[in-house]
Amino acid sequence: MSIHLKAMQLTGSYNSFEQALFEKQVQLKNYRRGDVLLAQGNVADSVYFLASGAIVQRVVNEDETPHIIDLHTEGEWFLNHLSFVSQSPSSSEIITHADSVVLELSIQSIHLLISKSAAFLQLNRVLNQATARLFFFDFSLTPLQKYNYVFEQKPHLLQHFPLKLIASYLKISPETLSRVREQFGRSKTFLDLNQAM
To answer: Taking the model in full, what pTM does it have?
Structure first.
């Protein structure tokens, strides 16, 4: 399956004419580790699909400490939601954590696609996915519940990112994450033993 088709199928169903339109409008780009897709202060005017690699969305404060907003791995759509929707300067940046292959779809291309076929309104699902993380942190989850969520729903993050970035993503300290992982390991072993009996 082509990268283009895989990206499209995550947003909905399209016919062959619409697939051809999409392929003409989207740009395939290769990035090296550390490349910036969106700099702080710039307006987000594109949505992206990560064909391979790893992406970090972060805010770098005045003290140069990065705070992780989101982490992305292969097969995910991503964007800076607030900047894209409001067309205002971004308070965060999007950078590559590893060499990455990305499909980029500009806001102008999205408008063009929608004008050619209403099926492209399904691209709105990309915007909805971007707000899922807000839902995740709107609830007062314990560090263990947050880690369990990542382990169950996004285990690929644990394979692609160092624990320091995972801790920042979960809004906990690296030390807390170490304790949580130890606690999680014990509870997982206990559950596995009970299921075996």
So the answer is: 0.86
Task: Determine whether 150 is exposed, middle or buried from the number of CB atoms within 10 Å of its CB (0-12, 13-18, 19+).
Answer: middle
Please name the amino acid found at residue 177. L
Question: If 0-12 CB within 10 Å is exposed, 13-18 middle and 19+ buried, where does residue 186 land?
Answer: exposed
**Of 68, 69, 79, residue with least CA distance to 126:** 79
Which CATH architecture fits 1-138? Sandwich (2.60)
Burial pattern 56-78, b for ≥16 Cβ within 10 A else e, equals bbbeeeeeeebebbbbbbbebbb
Averages of pLDDT over each 10 residues, the chain, 197 residues: 91 95 97 97 96 95 84 94 94 96 97 95 84 60 86 90 92 90 73 42
Q: Residue ranges of the alpha helices (H) in the chain?
A: 3-9, 16-25, 81-86, 107-116, 124-130, 132-138, 143-153, 155-160, 163-170, 174-196
What is the pLDDT at residue 66?
83
